[in-house]
Amino acid sequence: MKREIETQLYKIAEDQAGYFSLTQAYELGLRRNQIYRELQRGKFERAGRGVYRFVQFPASRFEGIHIAVLSAGTRAVVGFQTALYVYELSDLIPDEIHLILPITSSRRRPGIRVHTNQLIPDDVTQFEGLPITTVDKTIIDCAFAHIDDDQIRIAIFQSLQRGMTSKQKLLGQACKRPTRVYELVNRFVGEVEL
Questions:
Q1: Could you tell me if residue 92 is inside a domain?
Q2: Residues 6+ positions from 170 with CB-CB distance below 8 Å
């Protein structure tokens, strides 16, 4: 593998906790035999179907989520219960990985719940090398999706106590949703003293 391409691939992987997809490698001009050769040399290892990790990076505790995101394509974003789990704002471990994909994406993916919400750039951030909805967007999406009220209360309390979001951001997101969501969030935000 040429040094220039290796450096570019490493930079991509560095932003993704050491992971990269076969598609990303192909886009840089690598061919399957070159990837296989580097696997044999121990430069990176296979993490999942079509997903690899440079050996300098330890396996992420969210490896399954990284694999799902990279397999789903460059516009996949972690959201809903999976985002609460990644942010450690919920006691629940989701049965499926929740990803937000463009409407034109394939909807069938085993073990993945696909959502087709419209996202604006301000709704998305990076956390643990994952593209993920912001804390406030995540909590409001979960409230809209009828996640248990106690889980929403816990997420709001913990996110505010840890300085991960603000009351204003939560209420700003909530006002874009039905009255039920706004009233729920407003009640829980009011219970938190900072």
A1: yes
A2: 136, 139, 140, 156, 159, 160, 185, 189
Q: Classify residue 186: in a domain, yes or no.
A: yes
Q: Which pair of tokens denotes residue 144?
A: 């809209």
Instruction: Give the Cα separation of 76 and 41 in Å (integer).
Output: 31
Q: Which domain holds residue 181?
A: 74-191
The residue-averaged pLDDT of 136-142 equals: 98
pLDDT per residue over 67-123, tens digit each? 999 999 889 999 999 999 999 999 888 999 999 998 776 656 778 888 988 899 999
Mean pLDDT, residues 2-10: 92
Contacts of 146 (CB under 8 A, 6+ apart): none
pTM, two decimals, is 0.92
The pLDDT mean for the chain works out to: 94
The sign of the torsion formed by the CA atoms of 141, 114, 22, 48 equals: positive
The side-by-side arrangement of strands in the sheet containing 124-127 is 112-115, 97-100, 77-78, 130-133, 124-127
How many domains does the chain contain in total?
Answer: 2
Are 79 and 117 contacting, i.e. CB atoms less than 8 angstroms apart? yes
Q: Is the domain of 10 the same as that of 94?
A: no
